[in-house]
């Protein structure tokens, strides 16, 4: 995603008890404690014994789909996973042909905040390790260069930057406090004070749903300076600039900053795609119905993996969901969970109109996706840690190259290493929206040449090319046939659409012929673009399927649907 002011800026305003508890990305819209729900010894729920072995279609093998399937399997149901490409979705870890096999390129999700508490449950469950991610000015980042309008500023900490950057940070803090009750909301979230969260958020949703991020800045006295807004858009604080988000709803941004979603990021050692892949192979200790040693992989061993892409979805007699796949096989289910990107329902999959209520179809059609591109190259070693020299050959005390934020084509450049004498990786460019579209017509080699030229203007003495040991790996998510975009970001006025999609797992009020198909995935969540949203909506869908099949949760561990009326998202008027 984008960037934010570190939570520590406001930490002194937190009471001691609240400050000790981690924030969670369940956020202000639906403050359900997904982490506590997952940790409870009673588990997520059960179905009647007569339903054991019942097949449930799960469309999409990304993180949301695999979490959904894994948890349904544990209850004794038989998930049938359909995947068009590879397990992982936008947790996609690539490797470089002909290079050290341990070198990885995170084409999708690559950094995860500690507030992703439900995601962390599965990271720990699968035994994966994490490491600090080298964001700009982060403790794990040796140095950062901010290059704007042809002038570079070298920094190891924020204090090393010129005063104007501090002014911009102060303006952002004041803007959040004055316009969005930042410290009050973050305190309520940390304390998990649901009435207070709902009180503040209800007021802000009604006030700000029609406001863009940029308009929010312009309305703040602290950002009266265009120069400050421009610098903030290009640089920001946390992971980079904010300007690609300027047209989006300010509510999207507030969810990020309230929950610390852009703070203290960590990467998954060896690549994030390992998480859904390990869950696919995992053999849970606590299983109902299935024998010990059962895994999602073993339930699909007759096909050697997930079933192929879904090409058709329709409702059939008896309130069933009928699925047609790319191999031409047709199967009918009493329940199904759709976790793929929602636009697939409009283009790649032949759907009948009865699949969703008409208002939900409208919400799918109005979904706004952000473009995003990355390019990685392998290098022989982390040469950027070498000491730079001046024109006279004298040492400067600076690194040869740094994590870089710039207004040039590359925008964000990240330096990724695993020790001083080991092969390393550079993410030469990570961009969004219009900046991503600028790369779309170029192939990987052409992109790399433009990027090396841009970086050469910032680091004229750094011979990056001489250290490259393999061909570049790139992605433009808007050009990926099963995604058509990187992640959703609501535009002003989209809150009502988002609410319809998120609450779709609550189906008792729907006509019977509209039940049984559940939507999940991060673009259905309130925190699109974050793996945590994929996990949370998967857990919502699991609750929905169990409820649909006559099951439910243990009274000691109520699920998201059990407490829905107490924490339901704000309902804005339609007229």
Describe the structure.
This protein has 18 helices and 23 strands. The chain is α+β, with helices and mostly antiparallel strands and 575 residues long. The protein has a seven-stranded mixed sheet. Strands 2-1-12-23 form a four-stranded parallel sheet, covered by helices on one side. The chain is globular. Helix 3 (63-74) packs parallel to helix 11, helix 5 crosses helix 9 (226-234) and helix 13 (358-366) packs across helix 16. A hairpin with a 2-residue loop joins strand 6 (144-148) and strand 7 (151-155). The longest helix is centred in the first third of the chain and has 18 residues, at 163-180.
The radius of gyration is: 24 Å
Distance N terminus to C terminus?
Answer: 33 Å
> Strand percentage, roughly?
15-25%
Structural class: alpha+beta
Describe this structure in a few short sentences.
This protein has 575 residues and is of the alpha+beta class.
Task: Provide keyphrases for this structure.
single chain; 575 residues; 23 strands; four-stranded parallel sheet; 18 helices; alpha+beta
Helix and strand arrangement:
Elements: H1 16-19, H2 34-39, E1 55-59, H3 63-74, E2 78-82, E3 93-94, E4 105-106, H4 117-125, E5 130-132, E6 144-148, E7 151-155, H5 163-180, H6 182-191, H7 194-208, H8 213-218, H9 226-234, H10 250-258, E8 266-268, H11 274-281, H12 296-299, E9 310-316, E10 320-325, E11 330-333, E12 336-338, E13 350-351, H13 358-366, E14 369-370, E15 372-379, E16 387-389, E17 395-399, E18 403-406, E19 412-416, E20 424-432, H14 433-437, H15 444-458, E21 473-476, E22 487-488, H16 495-502, E23 517-519, H17 531-548, H18 564-567
Parallel strand pairs: 1-2, 1-12, 6-18, 9-13, 12-23
Antiparallel strand pairs: 3-4, 5-8, 6-7, 9-10, 10-11, 14-22, 15-20, 15-21, 16-17, 18-19, 19-20
